[in-house]
Amino acid sequence: MPTEAKRKEIDALIEKVRVSEAIYIAEYRGLTVSKATAVRRLIHNAGGEMKVTKNTLMRIALREAGLQTAKDGIDTGPNAYVFSFGDISATAKVLRDFSREKGNEALVIKGGIMGNHFLTKDQVIALADLPPREVLLAALLGTLNGPIRAFVTVLSGPTRGLVTALSEIIDKKKEEAA
């Protein structure tokens, strides 16, 4: 049975889990305090939060929130849990880019949880490669508007042809009158 302090931490984790769109797991062993602060700031600017907590408390929080816990022992060792509250690709992009910078190799992406699905490291990196949410929505909107635009063009074709024919008749009559 968890102590009262641990119970409060579990409850806080459950709240974060419930409002987050995705949770990424990264090992931070060997990361300096200044670099950890820098990555936290970048994650915060991307709409997320990085939390270092005991793995057992996180497992309990995930279980009580009704989500799947991490697989294959990925949640062992010193882990940081990155909660993405907005654009999941933006948060994943921050993690990927930061871990690829020279001197930041200590931050290792291990995987993640999105909904009730476990994400591998490669899937987290694939999420980071996605364009921003606004670009994806604009592309979707363009795709949805395409058939409607084509339909309107087809419907306006006969009217446009009639107007063109009448315009030519008017021009011919003007030429004959002149």
Account of the protein in words:
With 178 residues, the protein is an alpha+beta fold. It folds into 2 domains: 127 residues, 2-Layer Sandwich (Alpha-Beta Plaits); 45 residues. It is built from 6 helices and 5 strands. A 5-stranded antiparallel beta sheet has the order 2-3-1-4-5.
Keywords, please?
single chain, 178 residues, alpha+beta, Alpha-Beta Plaits, five-stranded antiparallel beta sheet, 5 strands, 16% strand, elongated
Topology:
Blueprint: H1 4-19, E1 22-27, H2 33-45, E2 48-52, H3 55-64, E3 79-84, H4 88-100, E4 108-114, E5 117-120, H5 121-129, H6 133-177
Antiparallel strand pairs: 1-3, 1-4, 2-3, 4-5
* N-to-C CA distance: 102 Å
Biggest sheet statistics: 5 strands, antiparallel
Provide the structure class: alpha+beta
Q: What is the overall pLDDT average?
A: 87
What radius of gyration results from the CA coordinates? 27 Å
Name of the CATH first level of the largest domain: Alpha Beta
How does CATH name the architecture of the largest domain? 2-Layer Sandwich
Fraction of helical residues: 55-70%
Q: How many helical stretches?
A: 6
The SSE order reads HEHEHEHEEHH
Beta-strand percentage range? 15-25%
Summarize the entry for a quick read.
The chain is of the alpha+beta class. It has 6 helices and 5 strands, in the order αβαβαβαββαα.
